[in-house]
Write a structure and sequence with these properties.
The protein is of the alpha+beta class and about 325 residues long. The protein contains nine helices and 13 strands. It has helices at about 75-80, 85-100, 125-135, 145-150, 165-180, 200-210, 225-255, 260-275, 290-300, and strands at about 1-5, 15-20, 30-35, 35-40, 45-50, 55-60, 105-110, 140-145, 155, 185-190, 195-200, 215-220, 285. The chain has a seven-stranded mixed sheet with strand order 1-2-7-12-10-11-9. A six-stranded mixed sheet has the order 8-6-5-4-3-13. α5 (about 165-180) crosses α6 and α7 packs antiparallel against α8. The two termini are about 40 Å apart.
């Protein structure tokens, strides 16, 4: 895995770009059969989902088989890496690469602390209220409502969040108060239009219990290298064409016309930045056996038969 630090013009670290090779199919893999989705960790079904016929949302069923990709994080590690999302990103990237049941597959990815979730509290509600409202409710079954919450970037835990008095949560609550709580690792899945918690269920519960904003590391696919190269060429060509256009105007109207760099430069920077950090749709693999196989898995997970046309929720 090739890693590249991404920074703003002022040198501020914004994320870790990961270029993965040699993983044609991930261990934590999303499968599809028309409007049916299956998230499997190795051979274990983790999440079964059915997109609404009218695309208003997604019914889901969690199986309780999900296992975290990261080992337990010690308090001293939290203190040592507090306030350093770049170091956390490298640490998480190591585990994502080493874990055989990671969602990483061939292509380019981004681990970034700048999740869209952090910019959704427009009403400035208390952190506990805001983050609790972002969680998709229901266990083992529930519904991701695209009609009401389209674009709200909700969070779907892959297992129920522990209670505030859980022993792990109590330990993390101390870290939340101290400002040393490790980040929550989130994976954006476009087929669900929400984030899945890969690691940090207890940490998020602790942040909510303490009404503090959790730090997050947001994992998503970005443009592949060939798309970046082609997009860079187009962006540079557009930039040069804009400067040439302004030069022609200056030749006619004199130096009162700007040279165009102040306008074209930021646009070039935005285009190049989006090529390296912009989200690309998640990949899903065809499910062997199609909808019939999906329905068999849904029946096994729920412990009952589901009538034709129904979803497991």
């Amino acid at each position: 895995m090739r890693r590249t630090d991404l920074t703003r013009d002022n040198g501020t670290w914004t994320g870790l770009s990961l270029e993965v090779t040699g993983r044609r199919r991930p261990g934590l893999c999303l499968f599809s059969a028309r409007r049916r989705l299956l998230l499997a960790q190795q051979a274990r079904p983790v999440l079964l989902a059915a997109v609404d016929e009218h695309y208003y949302g997604v019914d889901f069923w969690r199986t309780d088989h999900y296992r975290s990709l990261l080992p337990p994080l010690r308090a001293e590690t939290g203190r040592a890496l507090a306030g350093r999302p770049d170091r956390w990103a490298y640490r998480f990237a190591d585990h994502l690469l080493d874990a055989p049941d990671s969602p990483l597959h061939d292509g380019r990815w981004l681990l970034s602390p700048d999740s869209p979730l952090l910019h959704r509290n427009h009403g400035r509600r208390p952190h506990a209220e805001h983050w609790a409202s972002m969680l998709v409710e229901g266990h083992p079954d529930g519904y991701i409502d695209w009609f009401v919450h389209h674009g709200s970037w909700e969070v779907l835990p892959l297992r129920p969040l522990p209670e505030a008095d859980d022993s792990r949560v109590r330990a993390y609550r101390r870290q939340a108060r101290d400002g040393t709580l490790p980040p929550v690792l989130l994976w954006w899945v476009s087929g669900l239009d929400c984030h899945l918690i890969l690691d940090g269920h207890a940490r998020l519960a602790a942040a909510i219990a303490e009404s503090t904003a959790p730090s997050v590391l947001h994992l998503h696919r970005t443009a592949p290298s060939d798309e970046v190269a082609a997009g860079t060429e187009r962006a540079v060509h557009h930039y040069e064409a804009e400067l040439a256009r302004f030069a022609e105007l200056r030749a006619v109207h004199g130096s009162a016309v700007p040279d165009g760099a102040a306008l074209a430069g930021p646009e070039l920077a935005r285009r190049l930045g989006d090529l390296h950090t912009g989200q690309r749709p998640s990949w899903a693999w065809p499910l062997d056996g199609g909808e019939t196989r999906w329905r068999c898995l849904a029946d096994e997970a729920a412990g009952r038969r589901w009538p034709d046309g129904a979803s497991p929720a």
